[in-house]
Design a protein that fits this description.
- This protein is mainly beta.
- It has two domains: 109 residues, no CATH class; 50 residues, no CATH class.
- It has no helices and twelve strands.
- The strands form two sheets. It has an eight-stranded mixed barrel. Strands 9, 10, 11 and 12 form a four-stranded antiparallel sheet that branches.
- It is globular.
Amino acid sequence: MPKFPFRYPFPRRVTGYAVCYGIILYTLFDELKSSNVVAFHVGKENWNKVEVDTHDYTPFRGRAVVVGETIYAMNLFEVDEIIAFSLKMNKRDDGSIAYSLIKLCKLDGLKIASLPCPFEGLENDYLVHLGNHDFFHVTTGNNFEFYKVQHLCASPRFKYLFEKTKDIL
């Protein structure tokens, strides 16, 4: 993988990623609550900035799930919220690809299972795709008192139906 070519005023961390359409999409976030999205094209081995509508974009966390032409991810700021995106790819005059991420909607109604004990910041959560439009949410973690035990909490299965057409090169 080539060196990351972009510079930002403050250090950024990867909060979420999606593997789709031959690229790895990363959402980056800094301590000033500024976010960016970048894409690494696996075949061409190059990095690209991804355009987002700054008024409508919500950074995501963890591994996103791609179903058809929709990218589902956990909202970085809201624990119980899933957001849906579409990635648009257009060929520029110079032959390169321009990427843009469009927020399709916020998916309400997810109820996260209560954790058996506090994880003290040592937790991870995942959106799991079961096939078709069936998902469930999993939280894993441990705490300092019971560090040898890893707890796992899963939500009941839920279904989302949302599709939007998109041009893929």
